[in-house]
Amino acid sequence: MKHKILIVDPVPIVRYGLIQLIKMENDLVVCGEAVDAPQAVQLVQELKPDLVITDITIEHLNGVEIIRQLKAINRDLPILVYTLHDEYLYGERSFRAGAKGYVKKVDPPEVVRNAIRKVLTGYLYLSDEMARTLFDRKYKETSDVTESESPIDLLSNRELEIFELISKGFKPAQMAEKLNISVKTVENYRVHIREKLHLQSLSQLIQYAMEWYRGNGDLARRKAPEPTAAAPARPETPPAPPEPAATPPAPEMDSKVKTIRPRKTAKTGGSGKLRKNKDLVVEGNVAYLRRQAD
Fold it and tell me: At what angle do helices 109-120 and 12-23 cross, to 10 degrees?
């Protein structure tokens, strides 16, 4: 007898990929597809699947609420979360809501297939990193931060969605469109998140969320930073004045260059006769006047 699987995802290509993967298994069959929460609830009641594979971002419900609603119909129903959301942000919440497995959509087909098998046989399926995180929170005596001290755990499901969008750089108008709520509601949620995380300004919230996102959720396991007064800025040392340009050396005079005085102008005497002319003669470094005959 084949195990019946219901797929809940708003993206057609995702549902198609899962169907093709499940078709390769002789003892598995896809009994139905749902695109939103009301349809998922209806099909669970009608088809009574052995396993539900669902995203946690679907219309009409926030985050992990789809898991709670399906578990309310059948508390023994195995649910495998198949999503793009970071497991450090939603993984533990999904397990608390009743999920039996958590798989990322970027995982290879072998991981998805293994997760389906594990969950169908009654085991939990989660990544090694997530298993280590849960173990440290609950059993490691040297842990500095307990589960109740995690600031992200203080956020509601809707606030968690807003926080994740902030970490990815979404603007209020973009968040409102994606979550089908008003911009004013988004702004109110941001204020509530900031207060719960003990952050003093919106800029601190944005920085904290983005640092969390870049650190793959590591900040979710630590306390929010305590607000501290900004340290006074250290005065900058003025740059040293530029060195004056070097004065170019005076050009050297060529020793062979000779200065010749202009020829003396001839003068006339009272008789009107031209006096003897004198020319300046230069030979080597010696200069003398040469008298010319009349």
Answer: 70
